[in-house]
Automatic annotation (TrEMBL):
CDD domains associated with the record: NAT_SF (cd04301)
Catalytic activity: N-terminal L-methionyl-L-glutaminyl-[protein] + acetyl-CoA = N-terminal N(alpha)-acetyl-L-methionyl-L-glutaminyl-[protein] + CoA + H(+); N-terminal L-methionyl-L-asparaginyl-[protein] + acetyl-CoA = N-terminal N(alpha)-acetyl-L-methionyl-L-asparaginyl-[protein] + CoA + H(+); N-terminal L-methionyl-L-glutamyl-[protein] + acetyl-CoA = N-terminal N(alpha)-acetyl-L-methionyl-L-glutamyl-[protein] + CoA + H(+); N-terminal L-methionyl-L-aspartyl-[protein] + acetyl-CoA = N-terminal N(alpha)-acetyl-L-methionyl-L-aspartyl-[protein] + CoA + H(+)
Molecular function as annotated in GO: protein N-terminal-methionine acetyltransferase activity
Organism encoding this protein: Rotaria sordida
Function in brief: Catalytic subunit of the NatB complex which catalyzes acetylation of the N-terminal methionine residues of peptides beginning with Met-Asp, Met-Glu, Met-Asn and Met-Gln. Proteins with cell cycle functions are overrepresented in the pool of NatB substrates. Required for maintaining the structure and function of actomyosin fibers and for proper cellular migration.
Family (UniProt): Belongs to the acetyltransferase family. ARD1 subfamily.
Keywords: Acyltransferase, Transferase
Principal EC category: transferase
Keyword Acyltransferase assigned: yes
Known EC number: 2.3.1.254
Full protein name: N-alpha-acetyltransferase 20
N-acetyltransferase domain residues: 2-152
Length: 175
């Protein structure tokens, strides 16, 4: 059985099993603390009946006007708990918070090569809004898809009008 709850400070000591994946971004402790302090209502943990951390979602609410949206900064599920709906549960919670805050859409960035994640997001009704050239850097630079899902406030679905040409990270708007 899976229970989902607000992420707690002590969970930071338990995320190692969740972050052991080539597609998972690992952040410094201060980054997690900043999100926990600034957007605690967008940070959730899933655990099993033995209180083992199964996964987490870290998000935020940002933007202005019709770009006011929820953003998934990180979604990670430990390999042994994948394909049982944990990601869907966590995404649903962030979407629910975003709806309550009356945002227009939820977006996220995902590696183009992470086919399983891209397919999962498609099943959750996210579309590829645009491709970002060289968004991920490191040993191997890689493009990202900016994927979006319109929420009820976006009655005309304007947030889903895709940009047909790739953009660079420096071209992303900050609002």
């Amino acid at each position: 059985m899976t229970s989902v709850r607000q992420f707690k400070l002590k969970d930071l000591l338990r995320i190692n099993n969740v972050n052991l994946d080539i597609f998972t971004e690992n952040y410094g402790l201060s980054f997690y603390l900043h999100y926990l302090a600034r957007w605690p209502d967008c940070f959730f943990a899933a655990e099993n009946s033995a209180h083992r951390l199964m996964g987490y979602i870290m998000g935020k609410i940002e933007g202005k006007h019709d770009n006011y949206h929820g953003h998934v900064t990180a979604l990670s599920v430990a390999s042994e708990f994948r394909r049982i709906g944990v990601s869907s549960q966590l995404m649903a919670l962030l979407e629910q918070v975003s709806e309550q805050k009356k945002t227009y859409f939820v977006d996220l960035f995902v590696r183009v090569s992470n086919k399983r994640a891209v397919d999962m997001y498609h099943k959750l009704n996210y579309i590829v809004y645009r491709r970002i050239i060289g968004y991920y850097s490191g040993e191997r630079d890689e493009d990202a898809f900016d994927m979006r899902k319109a929420l009820s406030r976006d009655t005309d679905k304007k947030s889903l009008i895709s940009i047909p040409h790739p953009v660079r990270p420096e071209d992303l708007d900050d609002d």
